[in-house]
Design brief:
alpha+beta
C-alpha cells in the first residue's frame, strides 16, 4: 500500500509540474501600450500601430483577446511587426471615456467592436477590421495590413499632391 501511495504521489507531482511548466512557458499575451506610449513608440521605431478597440461588455472582444492576443502562436509576430495599443471604450460603464480615448474613437470613425486599426503615428491613412470571426481571419488581416496601409498612404499622398498640399 505504501508503494502504491508513493507511486500515486510521484505521478501527481510530475503531472502538476508539467502543467505549471506549460503555463510558465506560455507568454502572458501581447504587451499593450497606452495611447500616448504607443504613439511615441511608433514615431520612434517607424512601426505601424495596431489599435485594438474593445469594450468590457463586448463578448467578441473578449474572444479576440483570449484566442488571439493571448496565444503564444501570435504574440511574437504582433510585437515584432506592430506597436499594439488597447483602447477600451468605457461609455456604457462610466457614461464617458477619457479624453484621449474619445479623441481616438472620433479620429478613426469607429463603427463597432471589436475593431482593429493599423496605421502609422502620422495617421494619413488606416486599414481596419471590424468584428471577430476567428483567429485565421484576424491573422490574414494582419498579414495584409502593411501592404494595404502602404497603398492607402500612397493614395492619400497623391490626392493631397493633386490638391496642392502635401501632408
Amino acid at each position: 500500500m505504501n508503494r502504491r501511495l508513493l507511486t500515486t504521489f510521484v505521478g501527481l507531482t510530475v503531472s502538476l509540474f508539467t502543467i505549471l511548466s506549460a503555463f510558465a512557458a506560455d507568454p502572458p499575451g501581447v504587451h499593450f501600450r497606452t495611447i500616448d506610449d504607443g504613439f511615441a513608440e511608433a514615431r520612434a521605431t517607424g512601426k505601424p500601430l495596431l489599435l485594438f478597440f474593445t469594450a468590457d461588455w463586448c463578448p467578441p472582444c473578449h474572444s479576440l483577446e483570449l484566442e488571439f492576443f493571448h496565444s503564444s502562436h501570435f504574440v511574437k509576430g504582433i510585437e515584432a511587426d506592430f506597436v499594439p495599443v488597447k483602447v477600451v471604450d468605457r461609455t456604457r460603464e462610466d457614461g464617458r471615456n477619457a479624453p484621449d480615448v474619445q479623441a481616438l474613437l472620433k479620429d478613426v470613425h469607429l463603427t463597432g467592436f471589436p475593431t482593429l486599426v493599423v496605421m502609422h503615428a502620422g495617421g494619413i491613412a488606416a486599414v481596419r477590421n471590424v468584428g471577430y470571426s476567428d483567429r485565421s481571419a484576424t491573422l490574414s488581416f494582419l498579414r495584409e495590413a502593411a501592404s494595404r496601409l502602404e497603398a492607402a498612404e500612397r493614395k492619400q499622398r497623391r490626392a493631397a499632391a493633386n490638391q496642392g498640399h502635401l501632408p
